[in-house]
């Protein structure tokens, strides 16, 4: 894992940005604490911060040039099939000076050009400069596991691993109100937009090529999903399980490759437990880590993690977080995000990563399984809506009752009421609007009310409609559960789950790898019919049936529980000072972005413990934004 940034100047004015590269390098230093380097040639400058995992010798530090000095690369990621690719290149006469995957990537580009990306198994962002024709090639991995942002104007193109690098390189600090509107609904800003007007995220599976002053963006990978083909999969269910077992086993084996020890996050859920079981079979004494909340048993799943740890005799560590512990991690987490990101579970991932990084540089995770196999509550809700029947009809008819009952995410009963109310409302909408309703934390009209009246027309404009429409491309006329999983893959996984583990891990010098994101596993999962994933018996059917023999039986019968923190209690205790400071009437009025009246009503509803299960998330989203604004924009 690493951090990188760069400048390509088009004019004399653009050349001035090259002088800002040392500041950009400092802004991504936390992503790579082991080494740093810089390169400059004419109009181009590159900087790199390295976290050494493969070939840790200084010879593999970056920027890395080929023997002729013509090509120079900066690279962030891991290529799991690099040894095989290296052997093939040696057979063609290539001579290597390091044992790193970075040099393999560079030599492949030299020999095969941009098409070489399709040979890579792993995750990455890379930039390769050719001094001969002054071209710069930038690419991002298939699913967006590693981040890349860029800004282009008439004078230059700037790029970096995080928005903090873009600030350091001097991008205009202009708020994008359409992005703010989406953020208030989702708790994150979906790509390709960012919270800054003009700064964009390179989409997953895309590349950017600069030559002769022209910039070309291309798609080199597209999710191989066809709803009709998936529904007609010719394999029997037993055959489907056999292939899944083989593919996921290989994916885990690949992700154990490192020149440093590899551990695993173990939440106690199905997904991470399967990964841990497969990894422990290859690594005796595998180090595993789970996070718990001793003051809030409803959120604590450590007992299930212990069962898996005991079964596979792992070296298990529990990171138990109290409200004080979360408070201690709060500012570290907020400092680690240079774009507003308000998935509150990031706070726990930050605290866990901080502890894990004391002994490891690499861990495995279970990210991606829910989006592949239908693990979220909204997936079950979608299945029941499509299937119809008495249960779905009854829940919908009782919507007036659900609206009256207290709702919260802090206990089983109140959370169930919240889910029933959302199901009742969503089931009456069109497939696209239902998906958006279930994917967001607050309705469009609610989110818009938080924005100051003079900015609302700018936020909810035709650009917003176009962005939303693109995010809903997967929800088409041939609609089944797989369409929803496709939409989640592009929206939730790429913009919430993957940035969360990248940002929180990298803030602590920790690389987090998920076998479920192996592109062969992903391609296969999207070739399976929806009925293999969810039916009347439950969710993630094929994943559980394939691996149930290697899991403790208690995990197979437990209710699904998302990875969450006791946010309401935290905001009422350790977070209270932050609420008073960042959401005061004085600051809101002076800032001019939000409606002072709406924020005042939100503060009151939280203080009075009213308003349902989403109020705490609304407040948290505003706090995260305000901290970011004060740091970068005020």
Keywords:
634 residues; alpha+beta; Glutamine Phosphoribosylpyrophosphate, subunit 1, domain 1; Rossmann fold; six-stranded antiparallel β-sheet; 15% strand
Kindly estimate the percentage of residues that lie in beta strands according to DSSP: 5-15%
CATH class of the domain at 227-372 and 483-557: Alpha Beta
Q: Could you tell me the number of beta strands?
A: 17
Largest sheet, spatial ordering of strands: 2-3-1-9-8-10
User: Could you please say which CATH topology of the domain at 227-372 and 483-557 applies here?
Assistant: Rossmann fold
* Helical/strand content category: alpha+beta
Biggest β-sheet, characterized? 6 strands, antiparallel
What fraction, in percent, of the residue positions are helical? 40-55%
Shape: globular
Oligomer: single chain
3D structure, described in words:
This protein has 634 residues and is α+β, with helices and mostly antiparallel strands. Among the domains are: 218 residues, Aminohydrolase, N-terminal nucleophile (Ntn) domain (Glutamine Phosphoribosylpyrophosphate, subunit 1, domain 1), CATH 3.60.20.10; 221 residues, Rossmann fold (3-Layer(aba) Sandwich). Helices cover 46% and strands 15% of the residues. The strands form three sheets. The chain has a six-stranded antiparallel sheet with strand order 2-3-1-9-8-10. Strands 4-5-6-7-11-12 form a six-stranded antiparallel sheet, with helices on one face. The mean pLDDT is 90.
What is this structure, in a nutshell?
The chain is α+β, with helices and mostly antiparallel strands.
């Amino acid at each position: 894992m690493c951090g990188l940034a760069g400048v390509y100047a088009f004019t004399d004015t653009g050349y001035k940005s090259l002088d800002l590269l040392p500041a950009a390098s400092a802004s991504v230093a936390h992503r790579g604490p082991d080494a740093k380097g810089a390169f400059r040639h004419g109009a181009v400058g590159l900087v790199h911060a390295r976290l050494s995992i493969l070939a840790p010798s200084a010879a593999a530090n970056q920027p890395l040039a080929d023997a002729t000095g013509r090509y120079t690369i900066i690279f962030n990621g891991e290529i799991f099939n690099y040894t095989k690719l290296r052997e093939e290149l040696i057979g063609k006469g290539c001579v290597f000076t390091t044992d790193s995957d970075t040099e393999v990537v560079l030599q492949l580009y030299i020999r095969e050009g941009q098409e070489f990306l399709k040979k890579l198994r792993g995750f990455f962002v890379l930039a390769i400069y050719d001094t001969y024709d002054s071209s710069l090639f930038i690419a991002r991995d298939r699913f967006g596991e590693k981040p890349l942002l860029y800004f282009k104007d008439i004078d230059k193109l700037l790029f970096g691993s995080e928005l903090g690098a873009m600030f350091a390189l001097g991008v205009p600090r202009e708020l994008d109100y359409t992005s703010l509107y989406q953020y208030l609904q989702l708790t994150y800003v979906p790509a390709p937009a960012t919270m800054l007007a003009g700064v964009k995220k390179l989409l997953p599976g895309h590349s950017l090529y600069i030559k002769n002053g022209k910039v070309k963006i291309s798609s080199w990978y597209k999710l191989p999903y066809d709803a009709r083909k998936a529904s007609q999969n010719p394999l029997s269910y037993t055959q489907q399980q056999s292939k899944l077992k083989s593919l996921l086993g290989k994916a885990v084996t690949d992700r154990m490759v490192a020149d440093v020890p590899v551990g695993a996050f173990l939440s106690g859920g199905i997904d991470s437990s399967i990964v841990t079981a497969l990894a422990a079979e290859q690594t005796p004494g595998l180090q595993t880590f789970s996070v718990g909340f001793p003051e809030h048993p409803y959120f604590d799943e450590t007992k299930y993690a212990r069962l898996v740890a005991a079964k596979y005799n792992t070296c298990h560590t529990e990171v138990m977080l109290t409200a004080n512990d979360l408070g201690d991690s709060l500012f570290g987490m907020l400092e680690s995000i240079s774009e507003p990101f308000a998935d509150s579970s990031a706070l726990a991932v930050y605290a866990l990563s901080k502890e894990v990084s004391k002994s490891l540089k690499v861990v495995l995770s279970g990210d991606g399984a829910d989006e592949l196999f239908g693990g979220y509550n909204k997936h079950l809700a979608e299945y029941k809506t499509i299937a119809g029947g008495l249960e779905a009809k009854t829940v919908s008819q009782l919507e007036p009752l659900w609206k009256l009952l207290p709702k919260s995410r802090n206990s089983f009963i109140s959370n169930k009421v919240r889910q029933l109310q959302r199901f009742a409302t969503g089931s009456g909408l069109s497939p696209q609007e239902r998906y958006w309703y279930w994917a967001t934390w607050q309705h469009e009209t609610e989110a818009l009310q938080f924005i100051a009246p003079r900015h609302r027309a700018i936020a909810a404009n035709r650009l917003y409609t176009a962005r939303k429409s693109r995010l809903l491309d997967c929800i088409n006329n041939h609609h089944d559960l797989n369409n929803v999983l496709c939409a989640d893959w592009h929206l939730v996984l790429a913009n919430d789950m993957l940035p969360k583990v990248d940002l929180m891990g990298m803030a602590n010098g920790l690389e987090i790898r998920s076998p479920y994101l192996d592109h062969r596993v992903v391609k296969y999962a999207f070739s399976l019919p929806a009925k293999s994933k969810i039916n009347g018996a439950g969710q993630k059917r094929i994943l559980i049936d394939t691996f149930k023999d290697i899991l403790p039986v208690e995990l197979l019968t437990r209710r699904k529980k998302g990875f969450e923190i006791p946010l309401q209690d935290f905001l009422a205790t350790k977070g209270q000072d932050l609420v008073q400071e960042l959401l005061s009437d004085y600051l809101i009025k002076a800032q001019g972005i939000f409606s002072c009246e709406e924020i005042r009503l939100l503060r009151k509803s939280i203080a009075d413990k009213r308003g349902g299960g989403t109020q705490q998330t609304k407040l948290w989203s505003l706090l995260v934004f305000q901290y970011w604004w004060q740091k970068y924009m005020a």
